[in-house]
Amino acid sequence: MNVTLFHLMSYADLDFEATKEYETVWMKLPNKFYDPVKGHKLYNRYLDELEYAETLGFDGVAVNEHHQTAYGLMPSPVVMASALARRTQRVKIAILGSALPLREHPMTVAEEYAMLDVITGGRLIAGFVRGIGAEYHTFGLNPTISHERFHEAHDLIVQAWTQPGPTSFSGKHYNVDYVNLWPRPFQNPHPPIWVPSQGSKETIDWAAHPDHRYTYLQTFSPAKAVQKYLQSYRDTAEQFGYEADDSQLGWAVPVYVADTDEQAIKEAREPFELFRNRLLKMPFEMLLPPGYSSRDSLKRIMAAKAMLSQDLTIEMAIDMGMLVCGSPATVRQQLESHWNEMHFGNLLTMLHFGNLSEELTRRNMDMFAKEILPGLQTMKRAAPAQASA
């Protein structure tokens, strides 16, 4: 299994008491509550933590994209990946991902990703997302055309990466007479493509298609929902006539390790509950505006998230598999149990969440790397027995 350190870069210094009157920290929270001096320290702290992951032996580091929110301070994950490109030597750098429909032009993404891939000597993982509904409010874009903009942008990017130029591209949203990428990607035919999702049927069908076979990542969700969506990917691949490899599946989950279960819960309680009940929370119509998903996908996502409309305690989150938390023995047991049920080939660990302090984040990373990481990296399913002659 490949294990990646995934960082959301939340605004951990938010005054939660002063902002409690606001329904959400997304889009509507006045930016007077952002202090650039504190932000300067946080950005550099978070980049240090990602760089430290290479020293600890992680297989990769991952950043993502959100806009106008204290939930995550990365409106441009390419900037974060660029900062990491020259400060790391071995780890894969995953951008999870650029929200293609929000970009003015996908050729910019193609160029920036190719630059990063060349600079790192082929260590880039190219993540593509549509962006959650709140991003469409932020940019004033029509969510009903997000799918077609996403697919068309993807097609143009892959063409730019793989077809000798100059070529041309003609679509509904993008028309380019000269598709002639300089530089071309380092990896051939292009960097691996990962697709994070909330569980949209359309996304699963598209990612699993034989023409793609992209790695599908289920984002922060209860373990039973994760298992359901990963199995849906496998079932879809089977309908297409092939067996999905474990490497095509991934799960992103917060993890916290301490000496004992009691200590872990005590230390993680406030940061996790702030993360889940304050930073993540937004009105349903902001998360999934009309037209953002098909009716079938909306039903699936609503069913999975119906139980999550209320605030959760850390104990509830652990029971639901939304947080892996405890002593090294407990965390190993929980992750091994989840892997035995799902057989995901990629685990994206969120070892910082909410306002978890730098001291506790580092200790969490150290304990995870020493006690948990080596065992996870050797986990794989046994090869099928060969029939005797």
TrEMBL record:
- Which residue ranges does the record assign to the Luciferase-like domain? 43-337
**Which InterPro entries does this one have?**
Bact_Lucif_Oxidored, Luciferase-like_dom, Luciferase-like_sf
Q: What is this protein called?
A: LLM class flavin-dependent oxidoreductase
Task: Please give the organism.
Answer: Neopusillimonas maritima
Q: List the taxonomic lineage.
A: Bacteria, Pseudomonadati, Pseudomonadota, Betaproteobacteria, Burkholderiales
